[in-house]
Write a structure and sequence with these properties.
14 strands; 35% helix; D-Maltodextrin-Binding Protein, domain 2; globular; five-stranded mixed sheet; 9 helices; alpha/beta
Length: 268
Amino acid sequence: MKNMLGVLASGLLVLALAACGGNTGGALDEKKIVVGVTSGLHEQIMEKVKGVAAKDGVEVEIKAFSDFQMPNVALVEGEIDANSYQTIPFLESYKRERNAELTAVGETVLNPMGMYSKKVKDISEIKEGDKIGLPNDPTNCDRALHLFQGAGLIKLKDGIEGEATVLDIADNPRKLEFVELDAAQIAKQLDDLTAAAINTSYALKNNLNPGRDAIFLEQKESKHHNVIVVRTENKDDPVVQKLVKAYRSDEVKAFVEETFQGSVIPLW
């Protein structure tokens, strides 16, 4: 009797683990896909994509996350089938650090990083010794430094691409002081800075509109555009292709342009 109970318990444990293990291995369901997003603008856009995909016979279930790491963790572990929130440099950095088998399958939008200020209205007004804020995480620090270089504030060392830090500034003619801060907190500390580089998602949460309020804005050609990402084994699955098609539809493009008024730029 004890042996039978042991076998039964083992069988139930296996079933429980299988149920918790998510959808890893094999093709995805052709009629349903679970997509992870960060809360805010990516969630808003995916709600519109959900409606478009439904017309093509695909049910999109949306799971919203509050940070930038968990949507990739959930994807690797099979809790979701795709995610839509990250840039190519962020994805490549995550893949290197975690040895993750993830693949970008479609470009979506650019959430342009911008320079914002409550003290000056133009880049030309930034003076010698002014304090300039930028994110302290590697991907966004590099992005901000290239933004500053594009604005003519600094010059980076030759060949620095994807991993620049403040130590890689070759020329700083205005002797600016660069203050590295948590990306989510920069907008809240703008009063203490002359200007700062702020990600669109955090700008919007603090009532800053990139198209209206930025004194310098990242351009459409930026490498930091967003992508839909899936596990590499599922990159050619029909449901994934339908998700990309729905996202890059005329309906979603019109929604993005009307809703965000230049704060988010469609790439199709």
